[in-house]
Specification:
CATH class of the largest domain: Alpha Beta
Number of helices: 12
Main location: membrane
Keywords: Glycoprotein, Glycosyltransferase, Membrane, Transferase, Transmembrane, Transmembrane helix
Subcellular location: Membrane
Structural class: alpha/beta
Pfam families: Branch (PF02485)
Order of helices and strands: HHHHEHEHEEHEEHHHEEHEEEEEH
Radius of gyration: 26 Å
Largest sheet: 4 strands, mixed
Low-confidence stretches: 1-30, 47-78
Strand content: 5-15%
Bound molecules: 2-acetamido-2-deoxy-beta-D-glucopyranose
GO molecular function, one term: glycosyltransferase activity
Strand order of the largest sheet: 2-1-3-6
Length: about 400
């Protein structure tokens, strides 16, 4: 990562210097002394350039002979070659082995459906229909952070885990996610771990969801670079040295991750501690821990191992503070089919440019619809979704 930064950034600076220095282009073919003078001029300009635009994350010495650099060395930040702390070294060897060790293949692999909810789940009847006939291929966990849920489906009875209060935006949200993961990891058959909210509905039948997740080798963690105030604007230098600003990422919290990555989340304390201390709402930067911790963690530890989009659809296209929510009258066959047919992930930056990025959703190398679940649906939408379920999930 660091090496690629050096090679991405430096040629740009050099190009800038060249552009400044070679304006009289014809002179190259002209007399020799002129050519030498231009060369000398270039060297001078480069040195001035290095002085005026001091590189932030790397040393200009990659480009110049070290003897030339000696006078600058003292004031250039020496971060790339800094010594790692004890904690960083320990974390990096644990994570490296977790990433590469062989994982046991269970005889009957299951998907853990982990519901993060304030209380009762309005769509239990729908989920019951979704799970029907698939015993032994799923397990359910419910973290209710405000009040004890009243269950309407026998599948959910006895599935509440020990829960704690969750404060929006604070690390307690991440703690609840970790609590769900720890409970679900106890069952060695669980291979994928899906985080869902009380307002989520399934977009496909169980077989489709099962094959989609089990057939891929990725974790579906939403992750993108947002240079705006709700992205990197929430970064602070307190994250240094472990997390540089260029590594800070954003994404929706609703993930579907493989077992290896679930273990890595529980194994991490280095990055977790940083986010616990320095990413909180209401301190001016208004950092929301659950929107940054996992995207940043996996962007650093295993960027190739995550899809960069979430399999749970949410519609931010209205550009408001809250995503679009669906009432009973909004729920039609056409709406659900529209959502299931989307095959590009959507991201928009929070700065005034509002740059939209669309990326094809690549599943095992080929383009495929992105979403397995969707939110946010009001409880009143239950009957409509239930009535349409067999229809919109028919392939
Ligand atoms: C994924 O792609 C590889 C290579 O194209 C193929 O061999 C494999 O069967 C695919 N996996 C699934 C689940 O389709
Ligand atoms: C899945 O990914 C892991 C690393 O994330 C890799 O070691 C393994 O070979 C991959 N398996 C397949 C079938 O691609
Ligand atoms: C996700 O984004 C990272 C860069 O942030 C990239 O290296 C990686 O290949 C992306 N993953 C996929 C599956 O495209
Ligand atoms: C479905 O998508 C079509 C084409 O993008 C659009 O015209 C229509 O309004 C959408 N319908 C619903 C209910 O979202
Ligand atoms: C589902 O409903 C739509 C519209 O109501 C209809 O056009 C379609 O044929 C139905 N599909 C199935 C598989 O029943």
């Amino acid at each position: 990562m660091k090496v690629s930064q050096v090679w991405q950034r430096s040629p740009k600076d050099v190009a800038l210097m060249l552009a400044n220095g070679t304006r009289p282009h014809r002179s190259f073919q002209a007399k020799r002394p002129m050519w030498i003078m231009i060369l000398l001029g270039l060297v001078c300009l480069s040195l001035i350039g290095a002085y005026v635009y001091p590189p932030r994350h790397y040393s200009a010495c990659y480009f110049f002979a070290s003897s030339m650099c000696t006078p600058f060395k003292d004031w250039l930040p020496a971060r790339p070659s800094r010594e790692r702390t004890d904690e960083e070294l320990a974390a990096s060897v644990v994570m490296r082995d977790l990433l590469t060790m062989p994982m046991p293949k269970p005889r009957s692999p299951k998907i853990a459906f982990m519901f993060l909810t304030p209380g009762s789940l309005p769509f239990e009847k729908l989920w019951e229909k979704f799970f029907a006939g698939h015993d032994g291929r799923f397990s359910i966990y419910v973290h209710a952070s405000r009040e004890k849920p009243v269950h309407t489906s026998p599948l959910f009875i006895g599935r509440d885990i020990h829960s704690d209060k969750v404060v929006w935006g604070k690390i307690s949200m991440v703690d609840a996610e970790k609590r769900l993961l720890a409970n679900a990891l106890e069952d060695p058959d669980n291979q994928y771990f899906v985080l869902l909210s009380d307002s989520c509905v399934p977009l496909h039948n169980f077989d489709y969801v099962y094959n989609y997740l089990m057939g891929s080798n990725m974790s579906y963690i939403d992750c993108f670079l947002d240079p705006g105030p709700h992205g990197n604007g929430r970064y602070s230098n307190d994250f240094l040295p472990e997390v540089e600003e260029s590594q800070f990422r954003k994404g929706a919290q609703w993930f579907a991750i493989k077992r290896r990555h679930a273990l890595m989340i529980l194994a991490d304390s280095l990055y977790y501690t940083k986010f616990k201390l320095y990413c909180k709402p209401g301190d001016g930067r208004n950092c929301i821990a659950d929107e940054h911790y996992l995207p940043t963690l996996f962007h650093i530890l295993d960027p190739q191992g995550i899809a960069n989009w979430s399999v749970t659809h949410v519609d931010w296209s209205e550009g408001k503070w809250h995503p679009k929510s669906y009432r009973a009258q909004d729920v039609t066959y056409e709406l659900l089919k529209n959502i299931t047919s989307i095959d590009e992930s959507f991201h928009v930056t929070s700065d005034e440019k509002k740059v939209v990025t669309l990326n094809p959703c690549l599943w095992n190398g080929s383009k495929r619809p992105c979403y397995l679940f969707a939110r946010k649906f009001y409880p009143e939408a239950l009957d409509n979704v239930l009535n349409l379920f067999s229809n919109y999930t028919a392939v």
